[in-house]
Amino acid sequence: MSDVPDKSTFESLYSSQPPWDIGRPQKAFIDVADRITGSLLDAGCGTGENALFFASRGLTVTGIDFLAEPISRAKQKAIERGLTATFLVMDALILKNWSERFDCIIDSGLFHVFGDDDRRRYVDGLATVVKPGGRLFLLCFSDAEPGEQGPRRVSENEIREAFAEGWTLDRIEPTRFEVRPDLKDIRFSDGGPKAWFVVVRNVVNDPA
Description:
The longest helix has 14 residues, at 68-81. The radius of gyration is 16 Å and the shape is globular. By secondary structure, it is of the alpha/beta class. α5 (116-129) links the parallel β4 (102-108) and β5. The protein starts with 6 loop residues before the first helix and ends in a 6-residue tail after the last strand. The chain contains six helices and seven strands; from the N terminus they run ααβαβαββαβαββ. It has a seven-stranded mixed β-sheet, sandwiched between helices.
């Protein structure tokens, strides 16, 4: 799965429970929750755990995913938990055409699925929908994770290059993805796959 996956790959993963669908938000986002305020976009929200965590903190949250199945599950979770959030079936590669604007964006495991050209389209779209001065909080697989299973690995240099224009890098540090503990066909590093946690700020027309 280290090659760029297609839609059918994700449809197959969501026919059951994907490795990353752990039933709670990723710790990396919990740790910075106080910095994430205002209106929030969860790009590639899956079944909504991160989005719903921030909705429970009172934020106005929109989650998007390009598959209908995880969005349906996210909507059901919101109903069951009595939380208000908007979940939309939407391709993150067309963000540039969207009229919505957000104070913050989170990305838990979407950035690393794209090939080089689509990555550029995605980052351009993020710059369009985040308000000037707004921040992106990004969790992606690191090239420090050994093996070939799972998504494409991303180096620190690739991250810096992706956000070199129109963004300023506030933070980049090694961390871990949390994955399901009962995985049988996929093996990652003990403690979870090695990852990067990144915070970048949109400086185009930033009033600051």
